[in-house]
Amino acid sequence: MALLPNYRNAIIPDEKIYDYCLNPNHERGQHKAKVFRQVFGITAEDGELLKSAILFQLDKYEITTETENKFSKIFTLPMKISIFGKTDEVITAWIIENGVDYPRLVSCYVNK
What whole-number distance in Å separates Cα of residue 48 and Cα of residue 16? Predict the structure, then answer.
């Protein structure tokens, strides 16, 4: 496979981290938040740490799946990240919408 296309310009929207992945009250994200807390000891207050850890690893891991539809390309990129001295695999999902040249994070979770 290959690296995430245009990974240097990747963006991670705050709402994906703070309001979804690390939000223990989100209907669908609460389970992710619980595992991030158990594995890495992080909460929504540590969102910038998670964002930085993911962005730092983008040039070190290859995408494992790529799908395409008429609106976008979607990529899956597993990676090892370290936060507070704890390391584990996090699965990230990215989208590059038609007419846009940068990947945007759409989901991430600890691979447990």
Answer: 12
| Model confidence, pTM | 0.94
- What are the residues whose beta carbons fall under 8 Å from the beta carbon of 3, sequence distance 6 or more? 58, 59, 61, 62, 63
Rounded CA separation 40/110 (Å): 9
Is 75:103 a contact under the CB 8 Å cutoff? yes
Q: What is the pLDDT of residues 92-107, one digit of tens each?
A: 999 999 999 999 999 9
Q: Express each pLDDT in 49-72 by its tens digit.
A: 999 999 999 999 999 999 999 999
Asked if the 7-110 domain carries CATH number 2.40.160, the reply is no
* Phi, psi values for residue 60, rounded to 5°: -110, -15
The residue extents of the domains of the chain are 7-110
